[in-house]
Design goal:
The complex is a heterodimer of chains A (227) and B (143). Chain A is of the alpha/beta class and 227 residues long. Chain A is built from nine helices and twelve strands. In chain A, helix 2 links the parallel strand 2 and strand 3. Chain A is elongated. Chain A folds into two domains: 118 residues, NAD(P)-binding Rossmann-like Domain (Rossmann fold), CATH 3.40.50; 86 residues, Alpha-Beta Plaits, CATH 3.30.70. Chain B is α/β, with parallel strands linked by helices and 143 residues long. Chain B has two domains: 105 residues, NAD(P)-binding Rossmann-like Domain (Rossmann fold); 36 residues, no CATH class. Chain B is built from seven helices and five strands. In chain B, the strands form two sheets. In chain B, strands 3-4-5 form a three-stranded parallel β-sheet. A two-stranded parallel ribbon of chain B has the order 1-2. In chain B, strand 1, helix 2 and strand 2 form a beta-alpha-beta unit. Classes of the chains: A alpha/beta (227), B alpha/beta (143). At the A-B interface, helix 4 and helix 5 of A face helix 4 and helix 5 of B.
Chain lengths: 227, 143
């Protein structure tokens, strides 16, 4: 049992930051939400209640120090500006040794760049939606599903979220879920299946279950539940 | 600062491209500016490509946004492998962090405060000397 809640700092209280914080709070995380605009911050604070909403710059180091960032487990920078999200994550990582940084990326071309520049997970809504439209695949967050025609079977790609799957072996996950892991990919390279997982790793697996069941019954892998 | 620098470099015969998000900024360069003008954000890889970043020898980011400068400088270095990259960061703490990460950074706040302090301690002549030595090292240091 963890002796304390996982502490997540969310930078940016726009729509993404607001809903993200609300869901994290519901899932039992400790959350601090950082917002530049005082009016937006007080509006969001009234709606979120138990969450501490701090008014300030997510990239202002002096301010970040007051948010208790050095004990944060995750910093998620989800403003509408890629440069602000990048710098918030880099400062969190470099200056405050935050173990996990997650950035919202608005320009899909920046996903690769952010990884290269040390951001642990870069998520592009544009890319996800584009993937769903272009390939006709069913998409659920970072989850991609490729049905094998004429059967219930499919190949599924899952990106390991920050959560309980981190540190475990892909093989363990496979045993739990009774799927066959085909591939573990990190930074574009294939890794042995007994490598301890990191958030952002991609697992490609074969399942004989319908995609909906797979998604619903894969809480260990898919839900970033409290450690 | 960008327009002054661009005109200066162009006058010395360098091949200069200026990137800005606002067309109005190009007016400051004057009608006879010989360099390339690219409308767009300096953090955008396509925009930098258009500006010829793939063949650039030096990249300098001096927008009013620290984070834009920081990000575009890193794109210049990591994506386009531009050998000399310099960026302006107003926030002294952020400047220190990125300097430690290997970017050549310059903080007007720190430089300005140092000159003001020299003026306070030793008067205008010393302050002028400090200013000139900064100008000189800025010109030759060039990252």
């Amino acid at each position: 049992m963890p002796d304390r809640l996982t502490y997540v700092i969310v930078v940016g209280a726009g729509k993404v930051g607001f809903y993200l914080s609300r869901h994290l709070l519901e899932a039992g995380y400790e959350v601090a939400l950082i917002e530049k605009d005082p009016a937006r911050a007080s509006l969001v604070a009234a709606q979120l209640g138990s969450c501490s909403v701090l008014v300030g710059d997510g990239d202002e180091t002096a301010f970040l120090a007051t948010s208790g960032i050095e004990r944060a487990d995750v910093v998620a920078a989800v403003t509408g500006d890629d440069e602000d999200n990048l710098v918030a994550c880099q400062l969190a990582k470099r200056q405050f040794r935050v173990p996990r940084t997650v950035a919202r990326v608005n320009n899909p071309r920046n996903v690769q760049l952010f990884h290269q520049l040390g951001v642990d997970v870069a998520v592009s809504a544009t890319e996800l939606i584009l993937g769903v439209i272009e390939t006709g695949l069913a998409g659920h967050g970072d989850f991609l599903h490729m049905p094998i025609s004429g059967s219930e079977s499919s190949v599924v790609r899952v990106t390991v979220p920050v959560g309980p799957a981190v540190g475990r072996q892909a093989g363990e996950i496979a045993e739990l879920s009774q799927e066959r892991i085909l591939l573990l990919v990190r930074d574009g390279r294939e890794l042995p299946l007994d490598t301890p997982l990191q958030a952002g790793d991609q697992i490609v697996m074969f399942t004989q279950r319908p995609a909906a069941d797979f998604m619903l019954e894969e809480p260990v892998l898919l839900s970033p539940a409290a450690r | 600062m960008g327009s002054t620098l661009a005109k200066d470099l162009a006058r010395d015969g360098h091949d200069v491209a200026v990137v800005d998000v606002s067309r109005g900024a190009f007016d400051r360069l004057g009608k006879d500016f010989p360099g390339k003008l690219v409308l767009g954000s300096g953090i955008d890889q396509e925009v930098l490509e258009q500006a010829g970043a793939a063949n650039a020898d030096c990249f300098i980011s001096v927008t009013n946004g620290d984070n834009r400068n920081i990000m575009s400088a890193q794109v210049a270095r990591e994506i386009f492998n531009i050998p000399r990259v310099m960026t302006r960061i107003y926030d002294p703490i952020r400047e220190r962090v990125y300097r430690e990460m290997g970017l050549y950074t310059y903080c007007p706040t720190v430089v300005g405060a140092a000159i003001a302090r020299t003026f306070f301690d030793s008067g205008p002549e010393e302050a002028d000397r400090a200013r000139h030595s900064v100008a000189a090292s800025g010109a030759s240091g060039g990252a």
